Structures are given as C-alpha cells and as structure tokens.
Amino acid sequence: MSEESASRTGDDGTGESGAVCDGAGESGAACDGGPEVRRLADWDADTLLDLRRQYGSPSYVLDLDRVRENYRRLAAAFPDAAVHYAAKANALGDVFEALDDEGAGVECASAGEVVRALDAGVPSDRVHYTAVNPPAVDLDTVVELWTDGVAADLTVTVGAEDTVARLATRGYDGRLCVRVNPGVGAGHHEKVQTGANAKFGVPRDRALDVAETATQAGMDVVGVHAHAGSGIHDADDLDAHREMVARVGDVAREFDAAHDLEFVDVGGGLGVPYREADAPLDLDAVADATRDALGDVDAQLVVEPGRYLVADAGVLLTDVNTVKETPDTTVLGVDAGMTTLARPAIYGSYHPIRNVTAGGDGRGEVRATVTGPICESSDVFAEDRPLAEPVRGDVLAIGNAGAYGYEMASNYNTRPRPATAVLEDGSASLARRRETLSDITTLEL
Ligand SMILES: *Cc1c(COP(=O)(O)O)cnc(C)c1O
User: Fold this and answer.
1) For pyridoxal 5'-phosphate, which residues are the binding ones (predicted)?
2) Domain span holding position 220
3) Catalytic status, residue 21
4) pLDDT below 70 — which residues of the chain?
5) Rounded to the nearest whole angstrom, what is the distance from the C-alpha of residue 84 to the centroid of ligand 1?
6) Would the CB of 270 count as within 6 Å of ligand 1?
7) 274 and 339 housed in the same domain
8) Residue 318: CB within 6 Å of ligand 1?
9) Quick one: 70 and 53 in the same domain?
C-alpha cells in the first residue's frame, strides 16, 4: 500500500486518534484500544472452525484489528512517546501495514526485517535497524538501501564500537543510535534477558566514546537505546525496568552536551498474560515508572514492544490426530509441533489450549499431555492440562500465538511451515500459504 501516510491514525473514519485518547486515561476500552487482554476463551469458536476448514491444519490466525487495538491502547498510555514495533515478534507484511497505518515505527533485528518493513511501505524515518553482531551481508544491504535513497532516513543502532568502523568503511554517515548495556536485565526466561548480557550494547562508560567515534566518521548521533529483555509482568520486573530506564536517562544526559539527541529508546519487553489467571499488564504503571525513572531529558521517549502488540492477536489451530490413554495421562497427538510453535520447547513457555470443537456439548474434562509429531521429547505443548474430552479430528486452539510463533518455526523433520490467515474488518483471508515439500527441497542443487 502506498497511501498510508494519508490514512494514518485519525483519518480512518472512526474519528479516533492519539489526541482524542489523551486524558481518557484508563486503558480499558478507551480510544478503540479494546479490552486490556483477549483471552483464548474470547475467540469465537465458529469463526475458528471455519478458518480451520478453509485453510487447513495447522494454521496460524492473526486478527489485525486486535493488533491495532493493542497499538492504540499502548500509544494512549505513552502519549508523548513514539512506539516502534519490534518486528521479530511477527514480520508478516500485513502486520507492518496495519501498524504503519496506525503511525508506528519498526524496530528491526536484521537487514531482512528492514527490507520487509520497507516493502510493506513503512517510511524509512520510522525504521530502526538494531545491529547485533551484524553479519557483513546485513551491513552491506542496509548501507546500500541507505545509499540508494530507498532508506535515506533510516537509523542504525550499534552495540559495539567496531560496528561504527564497519559502517564507516561502507561509506555510511547517516543517523546513528548507540545501544548501551544497562547492566540490568528482565524477562520471563534467562534466555531472553539481554540487559545484563555482555553481548548486547556497549558498556555505559564507553557509550560517549562510541558516539564520539561515530561523530568523527561524519555520522549523526541521534539516539541512545537499551533493552532489558522480554517480559515485564510483576513488581520485580518493574523495579528492574525502572533501574534500567534511569541508567539510560543518565547516559542520555551525559550525551546532551555533545550530541543533539532526538530520542531515548528504552526497549521493549512489555509482558502479556500467558496464563488465564495472570492479570493484564498495568500499562499506566509501566508508563508512569518509565517517565519517572527517565527524568529530565530533552529528547523523545521511544518504546519498542513486540509481543505486546501481537501476542493475543494470534492463535494456532491444530487438529487432534491421536488420542492415547496411558496409565499416567491422556496423550493427545496434534499435527502442530515444536517446529510450528517453538516457545514451549525452547523456553518451557505456557500457552493456553482450548478444544474448540467441544464447545458446550457436555463432554467431560480430561487432563492431557498435548504433543506434536516431532521425534523429540521436548515436542510438548502442555502437560497435565485440563481440556474438554478430545476426540480424534477435534480442532484445538493454542492461544497467545501471535508473537514469536511463525517467526521461530522451522523445517526440522522436514515439516513444511503452516499457513497464516488474517482477520480484518470481520473477514478472513489467506496471508501466507502453507509451505509444501517442494518449497523445502527446491533449494537443493
Ligand atoms: C526482542 C526485542 C524487542 C521486543 O521484545 P518483546 O518482548 O517482544 O517486547 C525490543 N527491542 C529489542 C532490541 C529486541 O531485541
């Protein structure tokens, strides 16, 4: 789409915009932000069963209207901030288009994501590329896009001094942001805590030197950045977030004299309630803590959530193909596996699961182990999970699958990746077809 700049927030005929939302205060249903959370139980069973019939199994379903609601609710809680969507959560073109239409920027973790965001029509002044140990091909691609004018206003965020040198060698003297290592992490799993991991960002006491090096190479230092990890849920996480933001604020104030900072980016990691009993994130509390901790800085706040915008907008539909009674448990074999949705296998993550077929038809409840078809013991979605008694052919929905679902899918065991259907304005369409066996083998020479 190319008309997005004309139709950004407020021109979509609904009369809603960030400005109208200001002062509405509460997240709730204000300003089209929808409910704070969409639970798996809230999805309409008939719609999901129709989608399964139309697009096969396993299939991801993503509701773009819900993505927009999540954006609007977040933007209302951070009225002065720019919201950049962390593309790695779900890099489907339709997601970029919907969020671009809402006015979001995009935070890219690779040159590939930069290309996909630009292809979807996101203007380059809202595209940030965060170079984490960037492979040469990534820098080549990004600098070429910048040189050609395709991405003239893109911002590159560096987390190592030698990335500055590698950019300079390629002739880059555009917009640059310095990622600092805040020395404090947060997250639902140690594997996603980046804040205190030496891999990410430059040590705080080196940040100014890196900026100086970049300035001498002719680059325009416009921002500082930090990201603590993924998953601010509870008070402890919020404390870590506060500490992280305060440290970034200090760095920004140090920069102030020498550099004309446009923004201070405090990263993503806004949590979502994966368990049905988890309370939704208190966005206003996070926003207040962020503002307080940042202190006085003469630059725009940037937040870059991934999961928060897309997680509850997605479900994974999968057929039950085996029901096996064992002395310990009922084993439910489904046709999705760790190759379709990797989070449970990698992080031990909890995802809600619902038997969509068995809605209100009086079936009993079983406690089941839900497993996929992959020859790995880690190929398990849930253990001891209460579910409406399953019958072969039932359709299960796995919730909160909109973030880090398809993006982490693989072809292990020669499993073609699933289809993706999107819902928008109440109608469904196929956004990405299912892979075929020949898609996989076609690369062989
Ligand atoms: C992954 C990542 C994010 C988004 O994390 P979420 O938990 O999905 O919000 C934001 N910024 C950076 C630099 C990231 O690597």
Assistant:
1) 269, 304-307, 404
2) 65-309
3) no
4) 1-31, 185-196, 230
5) 10
6) yes
7) no
8) no
9) no
